[in-house]
Amino acid sequence: MFALLTQDPAKINHIENPAPPQVVDAYGQLPKLASTFDHVDGLFYFTYVVCIFFFVIIVGVILFSMVKYRRKTWDQPAVSNVTHNTPLEVVWTVIPLIIVMIMFAWGFKGSMDMTTVPLEASRNTYKATAKQWNWTFTYPNHPSQSYGEVWMEVNKPAQFLLESTDVLHAFYMPAMRVKRDVIPGRYQTVWFEPKEVGDYHLFCAEYCGDDHSKMYAKVHVVTAEEFAKAPWDTFDDSTPAAAAKSGESLYKQLCVSCHSVNGAPGTGPSWKGLFAKNADGTFTGRQREVLVAGQKQTITVDDAYVTESIRQPMAKLVAEAPYDRGGMSAFPDLDDRKIKALIEYMKSLAEAK
User: Which of 132, 145, 194, 349 sits at a 20 to 30 Å CA gap from 221?
Assistant: First the structure.
């Protein structure tokens, strides 16, 4: 994760007046770039200092005792046969209990603040849908969605309604100091207020499968003027070439973690060679063996097959290990235009016969 946080700022920040690059500090904690919840930093450093203090005390007592009370001759009698000290035991039980209760109360209050959504944030509700291994974002009062990236307005509190379509995930945004589990079959909520214009990181913080480490999204915090332009709504399918370009963008956002385009093996079958380009500019799909209800069949790849594989990936499994086991997440909400764009991108990869 830290490799992502310390990469070239030019690759991370690409909007006007970006925030400083996110660099991990000497304590392993991100500097406060855009956090509503400053108590998170306070609790972190309090816990850090407590751990260092007691580590030094305990190790110091052990080292002192090793030197002071070490046996100097083999027949030297024990210095003391005392087996316990009630006042001392009370002290080392009560003091840690008090410290732990302070940490608990501090953390519980912070957790309640993070999940108790104020009215202003509830009026600006996003939806973040997690699936293996990508994020889909639905915007307040806007029909379009974005994948792998989300845009937010600076200084405007926002609520995220979190859902998972498959396994346990987690919505973790270090710069905003928020982390919330995304549990299948249950909606979770979290809110925060972005304070600085810039690009930030969103990770899945719960192991969710083979490509868990690739489940990453960018969070763009922009001005109100920039947000009003809906910069996430860039889909264009006015021409086959434009559709293929939009399809390539969708591939990078939704499909790249599982499917290669160069023939390299992955979690899912490669897209290379799905179509061949004819001399007249048309495309012909390849022959492929698939499993239908456990029975092997030979089909010709076409638009209908690709569409079905996106929306119902278990309907026709590629009859080749390891793809015959299935496991692809379905995309039932991906509309016809976007699926067509993905198919145009697949065809743009075709080699001439």
Answer: 132
Q: Give the bridge partners for 220, in sequence order.
A: 151, 199
Looking at residue 280, what DSSP letter applies? T
Rounded to 10 degrees, what is the CA torsion of 228, 214, 235, 305? Answer: -150
Q: Which CATH superfamily is domain 240-352 in?
A: Cytochrome c-like domain (1.10.760.10)
- Phi, psi angle pair for 150, to nearest 5°: -140, 140
Judged by DSSP in three states, 117 sits in coil
Contacts of 78 (CB under 8 A, 6+ apart): none
In the chain, the largest separation of any two C-alpha atoms, in whole Å, equals 100
CA distance linking residue 109 with residue 105, whole number of Å: 6
Query: Can you tell me whether residue 296 is helix, strand or coil?
Result: strand
Please report, for the chain, the start and end positions of each structural domain, with discontinuous segments joined by +: 1-70+78-233, 240-352
Q: Each residue of 110-158: pLDDT tens digit?
A: 888 888 889 999 999 999 999 888 898 999 988 778 888 899 999 999 9
**Does residue 166 contact residue 291 with C-beta atoms inside 8 Å?**
no
Burial code (b: 16+ CB inside 10 Å, e: under 16) for 296-317 equals eeeeebebebbbebbeebeebb
Cα separation of 314 and 12, whole Å?
A: 37
Q: Is the peptide bond before 322 cis (omega within 30 degrees of 0)?
A: yes
Q: From CA 198, how far away is CA 31, in angstroms rounded?
A: 14
Question: CA-CA distance, 205 to 102, in Å (whole number)?
Answer: 26
Give 104's DSSP letter. H
Whether residue 133 is preceded by a cis peptide bond, meaning omega within 30 degrees of 0, is yes
Residue 148 — left, alpha, or beta (φ > 0 → left; ψ -120 to 50 → alpha)? left
Please give the model's pTM, rounded to 2 decimal places.
0.68
DSSP symbol at 184: B
| Residues paired with residue 153 on neighbouring β-strands, in sequence order | 222
Neighbours of 261 (CB within 10 A): 18
Q: For 168-179, how does the pLDDT look when each residue is reduced to its tens digit (9 = 90+)?
A: 999 999 888 888
